[in-house]
# Entry
Amino acid sequence: MRKSRGVRRSRVEALFRYLLLSFVALTALVPAYIMFSGSFKSQGEFLNSPFGVPDAPSVAGYQSAWTDNFPNWLLNSFLIVAGAVVLTEILAALAAWGFARFPFQGRETVLGVMVSLMVVPPVVLLIPLFQLGVQFSLISTLRIVILIYVGLMLPFSIYMLTNYFKSIPESILESASIDGASSFRTFRSIVLPLSGAPLATLAVVNLLWAWNELLLALVFLQSNEKKTLMVGITGFQSRYSLDIPTVMAGMSIATLPLVIAYLFGQRFFIAGLTAGSTKGE
Amino acid sequence: MKLASSKTATADVTRRQRSAHSSKEALYWIGPAALVILLIFGYSVVSVLISSFRYDGDWVGLENFEIVITDPIFLTALKHNALLLLAVPVLIVLAFILAITLFETRRGMRFYRSAIFLPYILPIPVVAVVFGQIYQLNGALNISLRSIGLDSLAQDWLGDPDIALGTMSSVIIWKEVGFGVILMLAHIISLPNETYEAARIDGAGFWRTHLSITRPAILNTIVFYGVIEAITMVSWVFNYVYVMSNGLGGPGNATMVSELYIYRAAFQNKAPELAAAAAVLLFVATLILMIAFFRIQRRSIAGTFNK
# Structure
């Protein structure tokens, strides 16, 4: 009797759990669905039945989105993200190795200050960096955006890799130094090959951030053909306010690379985003 | 320093030499990254500080700050940032409930987790535009409210200045909650099995178990998430506001926030000195949060090195 009541209770509980999770999952997925299905609809159909499956799927939205500078924007986004992520990866790995392996006075404080920089609002840096950009005529160049992104991504990247490098067992490294390997060779031929997973994780987190960044790209990339995708599609809304399917098509193209990366590298996304909070326990 | 406790003088000397050698080597490794960080952060912070005290090249003391602080639009912006902070406890409670629910769920857990996490990876400009459509007067939300007979709940979600900020924060919550769920769930899963054994034997129910065992066990993750989200609300909401209000912070100034104020002062009103003063004030506010963050992180950084 007692037991069956317990079982019944847990069944009711399970039902509530699934109801809650299904409701939340639906809420999380519906906007993406509205965007993606909307990109194949006509303006009228989108307004009348935003939730319906497209009646007569059409790619007209994609055709009108894929004009002007859209391919340029996509390319710029790819170039900026690739450049910034690769550079950050290199600089952060070197610095993290320095922090992890070469103790010096005040190391914890220096690392601590560096890490806290990740919360400085980018808008604070905006004005001086813009003036600097004007001075060196770097406005509307991809270079300056890459440089700023690298600077902004470094604090977290160094922090995460330092944590990982610290966890590499001393014994592996010592055997290399007995063999007479220089510290750079040890780093290149032993440490880096061991660090595939954290480096991939870091790349994924930084890629996500750089791909989605709007404020800096908006300010620094002013000529139309130099814009990133995020800046470009932000202007879509007012330009195509009477043609929502085109807006949605542009949004879908901008989201697709991320969703693909997410589906294949979900493990790395999760590892990377939890790395800041669960270390050192 | 730990070195001070060395027993003999010679050991002390060799150690000091080695430490000097190792700090030199550390410099080579850290140098390149440090240069970039100094340029982007060091230069900018110093430079924005200086320009906040100047006008047209002249030193004007606190004048810029006086102008900014008495500007009703700036005060409105600050008030909105403070109101957005109210979303942080909501985020924490929601994320905690979803994390423990996912933890208790075996079948389908991965699917639900992926779905709940998806909003976090979507680009904010995209999210803001899509929600801008959903929240239209005749948009998807009002259509579905009307279809189930709740016409009275249908609102002009983004056009009514009384609720526009609330609407905005619902979008932020929608996007940010998945991050908290992932953080907390990862921590709960990593807890040793024995944690829950006593509770199971006692027959403690779902809520008792998680409120009295899980909550204290993952407290530092909860605090970490809270701090990150507080920082988000104070200094990372530009993207949402800029896109959803077409760069204006409207209707009226109903969704004006301090980042947008700074952006507009610098690039639309051509008053970089006022923007600099406002930026300094925002920086100080973030600094307070940063100190909290630094304390939490330092504990874990110290833990990293003492392992």
About this structure: The beta strands of chain B are 54-55, 58-59. The CA atoms of residues 133 and 179 of chain B lie 24 Å apart. Residues 1-8 of chain B have pLDDT under 50 and may be disordered.
